[in-house]
Amino acid sequence: MSPPPRRVLRALERFHAARPWDHNAHFHRWILRQFPEGAGSVLDVGCGSGDLARLLAGRAQLVHGIDADPEITARARELTPAAAPVTYTAADALTGLGDQSYDVITCVAVVHHLPFTRALRTFRDHLAPGGTLVIVGVARERTSVDRLLGIASIPLNIVMALLKNRGRPAPRSVSMTARTRPADLSFTEIVREARAVLPGARLRRRLLWRYTLVWRHR
User: Which pLDDT does position 175 carry in this prediction?
Assistant: First the structure.
């Protein structure tokens, strides 16, 4: 199965630039459904401006967001109510976690920016016994199934953009969602490496150019 022609992709890029919406935020409610009962501490890796961290605060006693960009973590603090049980640190996701362990670790559209296997080992080592790792990731298109899901995502992306923007182009002041770096690993490679580090991990291809991974630390 061939990918869409370049002119179609350019038209879609122009459409999305005029009507931006956050593909990653689309998965936030799904992430909440993966939470175990009575989660105490949560780590959100690559927290950005804190949208997910603030949402997670409604389900956990303490949420800590970490991001490599000090400007974005400063913005996250500004946007987070002082009474919310949420803290932020500007630090490297692989070396800045210290010795603390967490009941839940979330990571959305970030792990493909990191050495994949090393990142999974780091997250595993910082999960408390019984803890849950939840990843929403980006894979490289390699197979006909990947391309089919990508093509199926195009009309869904258009519908979501129209709904989020009420059918109108967004005002110029609306900030665009940051572009993601292309992923290096295919979904098949991700599954193989993930299950070697995280036995029993559940991975699924998803629409909107994403995959999900859930692992329970027994």
Answer: 39
